[in-house]
Structure to design on (226 residues):
């Protein structure tokens, strides 16, 4: 069936460096994507979203890129901070209920 | 309240027992979703409510799982004859309405079946 997946399960970066987290999706009909951050013991927290009619969207220290040709998403975090350490999920919003389909996540660890 | 509230935060139950998990969404949010998250995985969709009705329950794994939202606000996820494989974090999310993409998640209920 259709699914959303991530390339790497773990990522370690030095504090102050930029982070890039990648995601592949398989449902070419998907029109909306969201990145979530999840800290231990908490629910997913919205970071940034992008619609399929866009290829780039920027927020505060975060940028999402969408390449529909190869069905690929990435999340870029600028000047990564210790508080950015968490699991990051991309999610595809689709279905009759507009439910979210999540990938398995990438654990980001920020090294001092 | 300011966010989505889920209770209890942790629940340990014996195999075969019945459990109820509660979700109190953000006031005014008509859309409510339940997800299940196993260790090391992303959340998986279980059921969606628009108002009081279960508009889409296609994610419920079997008939041991049931959810209600009788007054269009608080929702209860009910699991009968629990099995060890039901152990997971159960997450609730709400949004103003379906198609409004501002989902807010609660912190979840960690269910452990022993």
């Amino acid at each position: 069936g259709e699914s959303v997946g991530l390339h790497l399960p773990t990522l370690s970066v030095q504090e102050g460096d930029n982070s890039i987290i990648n995601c592949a999706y398989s449902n070419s009909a998907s029109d909306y994507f969201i990145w979530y951050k999840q800290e231990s013991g908490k629910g997913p927290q919205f970071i940034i979203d992008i619609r399929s009619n866009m290829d780039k969207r920027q927020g505060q220290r975060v940028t999402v890129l969408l390449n529909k040709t190869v069905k690929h998403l990435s999340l870029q975090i600028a000047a990564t901070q210790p508080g950015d350490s968490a699991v990051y999920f991309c999610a595809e919003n689709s279905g009759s209920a507009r439910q979210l389909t999540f990938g398995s996540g990438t654990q980001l660890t920020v090294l001092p | 309240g300011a966010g989505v509230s889920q209770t209890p935060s942790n629940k340990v139950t014996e195999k075969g027992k019945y459990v109820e998990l509660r979700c109190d969404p953000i006031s005014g949010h008509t859309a409510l979703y339940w997800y299940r998250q196993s260790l090391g995985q992303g959340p998986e969709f279980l059921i969606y409510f628009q108002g009081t009705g279960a508009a889409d329950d296609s994610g419920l794994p079997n008939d041991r799982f049931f959810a209600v939202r009788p007054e269009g606000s608080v929702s209860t996820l009910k699991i009968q004859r629990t099995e060890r494989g039901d152990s997971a974090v159960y997450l609730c999310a709400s949004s103003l309405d379906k198609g409004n993409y501002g989902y807010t998640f609660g912190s979840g209920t960690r269910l452990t079946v022993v």
